[in-house]
Specification:
651 residues, alpha+beta, four-stranded antiparallel β-sheet, 25 helices, 54% helix
Length: 651
Amino acid sequence: MQSKIFLVNKEIRKTIMRSIGWVAIVHFLGLIFAVPLEILMTTTGEQRQYIRAESLFYFHFEIQAVLNIGIPVILAVFLFRYLQVKPYSDFMHSLPIKRDRLFHQYALTGMILLILPVLLIAIIISALYIPLNLSEFITWADIFKWLGITIMFNLLVFLAGVFTGMISGISAVQGILTYIFLLLPMGLLVLLAYNLPFYLYGFADRYVMESKVESFSPLVALSQVDYRPLGAIEIIVYCLLIFILYGVSLWVYKNRRLEAVTQSLVFPLLKPIFKYGMTFCTMLLGGLYFGIMEGNTTWLIAGYVIGAILGYFVAEMVLQKSWRIIIHIKELIIYAGAMALLVLLFQFDFTQFEKKVPNLSEVERIHLSENYFMYNDANDPFFLTSAENMDLIRRLHKEIVANKNQNKNRVNDSSDHAFFVYELKNGKKLVRDYMIDKKEYAHFYKLIHESEEYKRVTNGIFKVNEEQIEKISIHPYGPTQKKAVIVDPKDLKEAIAVLKDEINTATYEETIDNRDPHAFIEIMQKNDKTVGLEWRISYKKFEEWLDKKGLLEQAKVTAADISYAYIVDTNDLQINYAQGYSYEELFEQMSKIGRSIKVTDKNRLEESLLNASGFHDGPYMIGYYYKADGSIDIKSFSGEHIPDFVQQYFN
């Protein structure tokens, strides 16, 4: 005779399948549509030749992501629904079966129902692999990789849902808490990263944000897996989390009070954590919004107050399950006092973050640039290693820190970044990012930028093997199809030598000239690698060399390319920067302004081309009308580069 426990277990399995079996079916049908069916349609149609699949996530990735994020949570909510309904909970826990065994039955069944659809899809794709010749697009390894990653994320999200189900007594709260739980580490890191620059002078928020912060949230990592492969450490951590969540969920379930159903959080300890955690996060969000939008301390504090109050009210409504909540003024006062104390500690720089500048003996090499992206986006970011340059950079860094208040007061839209990366001999990094007026520190930048080492590490032309150069193409700046090409081996060597000489003799002032360069120079090598540099206005020797070779006319825009131009006072133009504008509309407007200069004289056109800038922030704007195809180009004059005839006319 079968035992009562066996019969109970059998009935529980039947109940589980009847109540949540449909979720597995929906999951399977969704994956069928997203992957095998899409593969079948695209590989048997005309679009086969356009497929560029790097993995199985290429096929309807959006649908796959929605399924991988949504199905596990739905399954966890419906599977452990019996914990949220009192009669159902009383009935299940009155059965002759231990809690841990009950948990294992439900959790393991849910995991199997998640794995089976994915496994079946992998088998179907494998069956199609040879008949459809899928080896042109994917490998067998891609199939197993997709299988493993999909199952891993499904189980991780599911067990996160199971865990939140153990600490919550309301199904809706369980679902919401699951996503909060999975997003919280990254969300909190992002909020802190963007708020800390208000308190820690030099904190490099962009560097932190680009340091794989998406790995801190499985949901974000999952949403990017089609173009950002997971690292080995990420996979190991996520797999460990699966086992940890399973074990913790079991422990919590065994210690959960049965009468806590219908409560938002079943453990009293979690309620203040949830309340003040939400208050803190919304406070940071409010401060971030108002601090960035308005840019002053008053609005920053107002943002913190508004965000904190809003978060506190929402948290209380969730916990009290009503919008008619009881406000605990004493709690808000204590929280406000704690935050004020935290801000005060930052004002005194108790971590010595702001004053930290490594000693020269500790430093291996240093990166200094005007933009974080010059470090992060470069395949091989440049570093300076000479003692002279590293000492100059440290002195520059110290002076920026010493002028903290002055630099903060002068921050505006035209401020520059000073981005430092110290790589220390102990393997660590020290990263700082400041907003400064570079003119105040020009004496440091001049010495650094004019040094031989800086010019060599920041200009790719010095890394080019002359014997490997295939050709040099010179593309003029402007709406023109002209191009100068150098292919003769002798001319290639001469051109490289002249360009190197121009770079070596260029002054700092010439390198920061805001006027548009003549052209972009592309050096193509036999290994298909290219090196690019600009033909600056100051490169007179290179201009003479091109003229000598008969290439000057094709290498840059000249007055001969332009029919005429209009020059106007920028204040006379009506430009809607918010809605955008076209060059054609702007040029037509310039042509109708009575107080404008129509330039047709070749000498004046050449002078204008030499002094114009592509940034439309100067007091005078110029619009060029090109002969070849009627193209329009709009530029501006500013500072010391305003032509004399323009100054005389408008003044």
